[in-house]
Amino acid sequence: MLTVRRATPSLMGSDDLRIGDWLVQPTLGRVSKGEEVVRLRPQLMDVLLCLASRHGRTVMKREVLDTVWNDHFVNESALARCIAELRQVLGDNARNPQVIETIPKRGYRLIAPIGTADPDETEPASAIPALVHPPISDADDVGETPDSDRAAQVEEPKDARRYSLPRTALVLIAVVSVLLLAGWFLT
């Protein structure tokens, strides 16, 4: 199983910040807006902070992968899933982005206004009587689906669906062939 580095020290600063209407609290691993609080798994927070640290600039996909996953091999689909989950949580839309813009074939750009959070906003978790969504799955980005209803349910790429039926048919034919050969040898 792929081991992914958690809580990148350079990204997990102690300072809370605002991204658009959202209060981002990296040390608590959560974002909140009004009464809504959503916990993010570390990779999502790292991707968000990577984009925030380069606000307004196009961040190449390879740069995000190198920053968040360091020396581990993770393909671009893991990053695309993280971006889709962040958009879902932040109420963003890829077709009409207000927070994260996709730069085709290159990377992503954080376009929402960012700023520092007021100290009054950063109340302890016990003081917030909010709707708290369960954390998005801590599963590593190796094809596992997040557990949370709030997490984006990203569809498989069309290529994966196109090849899954023929692959299933081949496996079924192989199993039937083995059973027929076993029956022939036993008689």
Task: Name its key features.
187 residues; alpha+beta; six-stranded mixed β-sheet; 9 strands
Please describe what this structure looks like:
- The protein has four helices and nine strands; from the N terminus they run ββββαβααββββα.
- It is of the alpha+beta class.
- The strands form two sheets. It has a six-stranded mixed β-sheet, with no helix packed on it. Strands 5-7-6 form a three-stranded antiparallel β-sheet.
- Helix 1 crosses helix 2 and helix 1 packs across helix 3 (76-90).
- The longest helix has 29 residues, at 158-186.
- The termini are far apart.
**For the residues shown, what is the average pLDDT?**
75
Strand arrangement, major sheet? 8-1-2-3-4-9
Number of extended strands: 9
Described by the principal axes of the CA atoms, the overall outline is elongated
Order of helices and strands: EEEEHEHHEEEEH
Tally of DSSP helical segments: 4
β-strand percent reads: 15-25%
Biggest sheet statistics: 6 strands, mixed
Detail the poorly predicted runs.
Answer: 1-12, 124-157
Short note summarizing the structure:
The chain is α+β, with helices and mostly antiparallel strands.
Give the helices and strands, then pairings.
Elements: E1 17-19, E2 22-25, E3 30-33, E4 36-39, H1 42-53, E5 59-60, H2 61-69, H3 76-90, E6 100-103, E7 107-110, E8 114-116, E9 131-133, H4 158-186
Parallel strand pairs: 4-9
Antiparallel strand pairs: 1-2, 1-8, 2-3, 3-4, 5-7, 6-7
